Amino acid sequence: MKLENEHEHFGRLRIVKGMNEGNGLSLSVGCKDTRLADINIDIDASVFPDIMADVLHLPIRNEVFDTVFFTEVIEHLPENTEIQALKEIKKVLKNEGKLILTTPNNRAIFTLLDPARYIMTHRHYNILNIKNLLHDSGFSIEEIFTMGGIYECLGVLYYCLVVYPLNRLFDRNLSYAPSILCKLIDSEYDIKSIEGYTILIKAKKNSGQIGNVLYENR
User: In 10 A of CB 64, how many CB atoms?
Assistant: First the structure.
């Protein structure tokens, strides 16, 4: 999300930006109009990415980046392609490079109020799902937590039901949400919660072979 009028990162993206250690070259996969990284990739030419490409087939040589951002993208991929996408990201990361990933949490209230879940292939994951996907793709998790709440959920509703249709109909670039709602969303990302709207993960590329032990549900 971006506060369009002020070009500020808030809420989830404020936290994501802070999770980056800031060392070396970074890549954002599925950047939309948000510029978090040195190089930004998207499949949509209308958002003017640095590289137009699909995460399932990244046209980049191996071991280039120190950090890859993969935020609010995995849930939009074709089902059962998540590991392929994560392995593509792993290939372009340097040894022990970092992946910063976010995705909506699979709590009943959040999935129920997600319009995209009913009209598109938009999934929510729980922490166990994400842990196992990362493990099977050759990553070890350094940090995983949730943040955000009902205001984030309302922001998604407002965007899907108001902003997105108006932008498409009238070729406009309206902001994500009213400023007061943006401030409320941002305030939810000041503290970590047990069952927040967004799962946030920092993971490290493993240089060795992937093991066989899956994470247990905790």
Answer: 17
Here the tokens at position 205 are: 């590329």
Per DSSP, 152 falls in state H
- Between CA 171 and CA 10 the distance in angstroms is 24
Question: Over the stretch 168-215, which tens digit does the pLDDT of each residue have?
Answer: 788 766 677 789 999 999 999 999 988 999 999 999 998 754 443 343
Question: From CA 126, how far away is CA 123, in angstroms rounded?
Answer: 10
| Three-class secondary structure of residue 20 per DSSP | coil
Domains, the chain, with CATH or none: 2-205 (3.40.50.150)
Give CA angle at 49 (45, 53), nearest 5°. 70
pTM of this structure = 0.86
CB atoms within 10 A of CB 156: 22
> Of 134, 153, 157, 152, nearest to 144 (Cα)?
134
User: Given phi > 0 = left and psi -120 to 50 = alpha, else beta, which region is 171?
Assistant: left
Q: In the β-sheet with 65-71, what is the strand arrangement from edge to edge? A: 51-52, 39-42, 26-29, 65-71, 93-104, 198-205, 139-147
| Alpha carbon 188 to its chain's center | 17
